[in-house]
Specification:
The chain is of the alpha/beta class. The protein contains 5 helices and 5 strands; from the N terminus they run H-E-H-E-H-E-H-E-H-E.
């Protein structure tokens, strides 16, 4: 099944996710770190984080698709976009606040390893969010 793009339900879920995550980060006083997200063409997490007041210089969007990154970069030219494996990007960010891994595939060994890498990269009080599409 191919990724169908943004839906109204996905946008609402993302808003709830980041509202809760940024509130938790403020309580833990970790809100000043960087945010790593999976980019996609829509760059929905980038837009939502900016809507919650996160400065674009603190957002790193990653994707394995060069085409998706080109489209996302056109929407958000001042946001750092990285082509490659998010696990490698996580290792290079010394001060993280939050990570959202919005997987468009099934829960499997690789996705679990990626979540583990994100967990290992986060400081105490950092927030790790991972979403999966049901029935995938």
């Amino acid at each position: 099944m191919a990724y169908g793009g943004e839906t109204w339900a996905k946008k609402v879920a993302r808003d709830i996710l980041w509202r809760e995550a940024t509130a938790a980060l403020k309580r833990a006083n970790v809100i000043k770190g960087r945010f790593v997200v999976l980019a996609s063409e829509e760059a929905g997490d980038v837009s939502t984080l900016m809507g919650y007041g996160v400065d674009r210089s603190r957002i790193v969007a990653v994707d394995t698709s060069a085409n998706a990154l080109r489209i996302a970069q056109a929407k958000f030219p001042d946001v750092k976009m990285v082509h490659g494996d998010v696990r490698k990007v996580l290792l290079g960010n010394e001060r993280l606040a939050g990570v959202h891994l919005d997987f468009c595939g099934p829960l499997g060994r690789e996705t679990i390893q990626t979540c583990n890498a994100a967990y290992q990269a986060l400081p105490m009080g950092g927030v790790l969010c991972a979403t999966f599409q049901r029935a995938r």
